Automatic annotation (TrEMBL):
Pfam families per record: Glycogen_syn
Ranges of Polar residues composition bias in the record: 618-630
Protein name (Swiss-Prot/TrEMBL): Glycogen [starch] synthase
One GO BP: glycogen biosynthetic process
Length: 646
């Protein structure tokens, strides 16, 4: 179901320079959302990471409007007096009426109000009903009805055009909210969504085609030291390994150096987030690793908050046993070191047989006996309130992955958001992601997908789907995504079983990679971070605001977007060190490390990185009268980006 586009909505080189210069000195931008300084989901990340770039563009004429939550104000908001006298009068007037947030201004001639999601949509509808001189933008990050339909195990994408939207909303008792969302979409001067897949959904469910797609970006952190993110990966991985040592005490019969950490994280939407297909793929992966006698062990983390009453006692005991063993080892080490020191002081070589006495052996034996365990390592780190009906635990029971010694795939369900103050796994989310090897997000309903995007900017490969905004975006802009550690699972044109087999294949091929191959892949993944930087993706929000100003104030502002000359836009080329033909390579990463001496497989990291930097940045520095050429012409050219002058 292709969506006709009047503007290149996801092609980085398709958004051409506008002819009219917009003077923003007499304009004010209000951005309204329920998640301003109020973390609920991904919209909070959108607004928080985009705020600095928007403030640079609008200066003191940029205002964020959200709910006044006292606990959030104390930790996230700096209270200052507004310098704008008009705004100060407005806020004082609203405060005197008992309202602690401002949503309108009175005098500036050109106001842009950008509303996010149906929760803020009422203000947009009232602005248009009262005919206020405000340019309005409405962004839906996920349609309300779409989320409910997908949660109900409906064949959503194949029946988009067939839904009786009013009946479906009424049956789910969300008709009032659906009407508000639909009214906001139709009343807005400019309607936007976050991805092409959501644009198709909105056109059918909200009955309006989006004017422009505004992909979500991130503030990409660049490190001054070369490959610093690799060092951070090693440091965080070692902290996860410490947790694993405690969690699997008494059953630590696998090599941690050959252990891969996989994870899935997000809201606990079992089917929408793809936890169901991930668990099934893990069961099939376990079978493949066992029949192929692989020495690789996979530990899959499920970081999804659910209802719990406390930590699991057995899990806490594991960390206590690990710490006790560590303390015992240090005690014996100090005693050993003292005897060695005294022996060397008198000029004698130590008698190894006398270095450890009976007391040392007694201490060590007690520590070993303390690690004895009759039960299997627990699946869940917490006590679940609804253990018998929990979908993840029920699926684990069905597939039979109980962390037994024979299994090559282990599962750890952490039903709580990660925190550096946790007594169990004291790591924040960013540290944890950096320590993992692969993020797995086989979502069925994912309008954008910040979790794989965060993996990318931290140099961690990830699996996404062609039903997620992130997956579609990367698939469009990268010629060979898997070569850069971005695996795109087909969940739109394949059945569940076929998709599960494809996911299993991705996981099994990843397990077969050598350590050198994973390092090279992480280097490539991290270089894609420029694609997701707000410095680039923020231009779509700029275009939406200019479009809204031109529609609301046609006598003052003019905006005429041009049809892109190339439908395909910019595509990130294959890495130079990977053969372009699939027949020359079994998969997208270099051959096994034993073949390093092969002249045809030499890998020059600095050279490849420099080519990637040129390839990714050239479209953004193109002048007004240039457009990017199609990249599919010649795979053998090193510089795969060309510009054609009009």
């Amino acid at each position: 179901m292709p969506l006709a586009r009047s503007l290149s909505v996801t092609s980085l080189s398709g958004l051409e320079e506008w002819d009219e210069e917009f003077e923003l000195e007499d304009a004010v931008l209000f951005e309204i959302a329920w998640e301003v300084a109020n973390k609920v989901g991904g919209i909070y990340t959108v607004i928080q990471t985009k705020a600095r770039l928007t403030a640079e563009e609008w200066g003191e004429n940029y205002f964020l409007v959200g709910p006044y939550v006292e606990s959030n104000v104390r930790t996230q908001v700096e209270l200052i007096e507004p310098t704008n006298p008009v705004l100060k009068r407005t806020i004082d007037k609203m405060n005197s009426s008992g309202c602690k947030f401002a949503a309108q201004s009175e005098e500036p001639p050109h106001i842009v109000a950008h509303f996010h999601e149906w929760l803020a949509g009422l203000g947009l509808v009232l602005c248009r009903k009262r005919q206020l001189p405000v340019a309005t933008i409405f962004t839906t990050h996920a349609t309300l009805l779409g989320r409910y339909l997908c949660a109900g195990s409906v064949d959503f994408y194949n029946n988009l055009s067939k839904f009786n939207v009013d009946k479906e909303a009424g049956d789910r008792q969300i008709y009032h909210r659906y009407c508000l969302e639909r009214a906001a979409a139709h009343c807005a001067h400019v309607f936007t969504t976050v991805s092409q897949i959501t644009a198709i959904e909105a056109e059918h469910l909200l009955k309006r085609k989006p004017d422009i797609v505004t992909p979500n970006g991130l503030n990409v952190k660049k490190f001054s030291a070369m490959h610093e993110f690799q060092n951070l990966h090693a440091q965080s991985k070692s902290r996860i390994q410490e947790f694993v040592r405690g969690h699997f005490y008494g059953h630590l019969d696998f090599n941690l150096d050959k252990c891969l950490f996989l994870f899935i994280a997000g809201r606990y939407e079992f089917s929408n987030k793809g936890a169901d297909i991930f668990l099934e793929a893990l069961a099939r992966l376990n079978y493949l690793l066992r029949v192929n006698h692989s020495d690789v062990t996979v530990i899959a983390f499920f970081i999804m908050p659910a209802r719990t009453n406390n930590f699991n006692v057995e899990t806490l005991k594991g960390q206590a046993v690990r710490k006790q063993l560590w303390d015992t080892a240090h005690t014996v080490k100090e005693r050993f070191g003292k005897k060695l020191y005294e022996s060397l002081l008198v000029g004698q070589l130590p008698d190894v047989a006398k270095m450890l006495d009976k007391e040392d052996f007694t201490i060590m034996k007690r520590a070993i006996f303390a690690t004895q365990r009759q039960s299997q390592p627990p699946i869940c780190t917490h006590n679940m309130l609804d253990d018998s009906s929990d979908p993840i635990l029920n699926s684990v029971r069905r597939i039979g992955l109980f962390n037994s010694s024979a299994d090559r795939v282990k599962i750890i369900f952490h039903p709580e958001f990660l925190s550096s103050t946790s007594p169990l796994l004291p790591m924040d989310y960013e540290e944890f992601v950096r320590g993992c090897h692969l993020g797995v997000f086989p979502s069925y309903y994912e309008p954008w997908g910040y979790t794989p995007a965060e993996c990318t900017v931290m140099g961690i490969p990830s699996i996404s789907t062609n039903l997620s905004g992130f997956g579609c975006f990367m698939e469009e802009h990268i010629a060979d995504p898997s070569a850069y550690g971005i695996y795109i699972l087909d969940r739109r044109y394949k059945g569940v079983d076929e998709s599960c087999n494809q996911l299993t294949s991705f996981l099994f091929q990843f397990c077969k990679q050598s350590r050198r191959q994973r390092i090279i892949q992480r280097n490539r993944t991290e270089r894609l971070s420029d694609l997701l930087d707000w410095r680039y993706l923020g231009r779509y929000y700029i275009a939406a605001r200019h479009m809204a100003l031109a529609k609301a104030f046609p006598d003052t502002f003019i905006y005429e977007p041009h049809e892109p000359s190339s439908a395909t836009g910019f595509r990130y080329p294959r890495p130079a060190s990977v053969p372009p033909s699939p027949s020359l390579s079994r998969h997208s990463s270099p051959h096994h490390s034993e073949a390093e001496e092969d002249e045809d497989e030499r890998y020059d990291e600095d050279l490849e990185a420099e080519k990637d930097r040129v390839n990714i940045r050239q479209p953004y520095t193109a002048t007004k009268n240039k457009t990017s050429a199609n990249l599919g012409a010649d795979e053998n050219e090193d510089d795969a980006v060309a510009n054609d002058k009009n």
